[in-house]
Amino acid sequence: MSRRLRTVGVLAVLVLGPAVAGAQSAGDFDGDGVPDGTDVCPYAFDPGQADASIPADGVGDACTCGDIDGDGRAGLSDAAVLRRALAALGPGVVDPARCSVTGGSRDCDAADVMALRGALADPAQGLEPVCLARVGAADLPQQLSVAGDSITRGFAASCECNLGFSCLLDCITGGTEQPEFSWFDGDDGDVFSLHDRYRHFDPAIGADGGAADSGARMRGGSDSFDLQADRIIGQLPADLVVVLLGGNDICSRDCAAGCSQPLFSDAEWREAVRLGLDTLVAVLPDDAAVYLGSVPRVQDLRAAGLARQQDGDVDCELAWELFDICRIATDDGTLSGESLATRLAAIEERQRRYNEILVEEAAAYGANDAGQNPRGVRVVAEYVDEQTPSLGTFRWSGEEINGADCFHPSIAGQNELAELLWRSSPRR
User: Exposure pattern of 136-166 as b/e (b: 16+ CB <10 Å)?
Assistant: First the structure.
């Protein structure tokens, strides 16, 4: 992992946290309800459109580069706060996306401290408007690829019910795989996909979701990470590969421990991650990045389904039983001698640990610890820890899962995935 990304990771722990954005779209990128054409900060959530500059300069407080302390202006106090934050001292940075005033859009380093101090001593020096909150994206890829499963294939995303012939017919007519609603490259107007977000800045950016397949896992099966990695290197050369696997690794198991197919151990999971990464870093362009999306919280599935079936035209418990859907997390009885509570506790521990291993392996490949990444292909994990928002910490509700199998994301869930993975992407 590069020094620049480590710095952002340190600052992320210090974030007080901006307001959460609403529904993003191509015409309202930050989802604050103000169209991009009139938004003073089109890439930062700012429904109030505050502009504390004197005189007002048309650049909102939410995207004022160098505003480290959150008062809407760049001043000497900002230089002091950033210097202390870099030294892991308080009070911390309100929004790391506003840090950079020189160099990269998200580096937030000592050069920014010096630039802030210098510009305030000599206004002619000025500050560069390069921070991520201002530009939205700077390090753009040219071609995206993905290793994923049925979530990435948009499985039944538009299905809203599973009771009644007409409802089932509508879902079947729409197709069980609905890639048009995929968080990755869906082109339906109801989804603001990751690809859409990149194309907002450059329409020529391409994406290929063809390597992803329903039922895929990180480890084992006919579409494991390493096998999908083989398919990815056969596509157009990608400079951003997103990996979103892990749900099926949990759901394909029979018990926490003590049966023929227990939840994968640390060593088994790590081995699978390395197999796929080794394939990718050996072939991807030198400037490419591999972005390891978090394993979602499968342990929320049953509670989310029970909430979803309150709609009246959805019976999640019946669907889970009839179609044998992730029984380790959805069956409320005893399986392999284990109660549901025992299994959910084990899934909670494994899901968190799998994400921690993604972070560990990203750091190991970034540092080339074992000589496994000599060309320095960037490997970045989306997960940070249990306190930092990510897909791995996002708690699914009934609204974000579909009404067909009550397992896969709904259209709302697909949009949430796109937003979470965009927020921490290493190429923006």
Answer: bbbbebbbbbbbbbbbbbbbbbbbbbbeeee
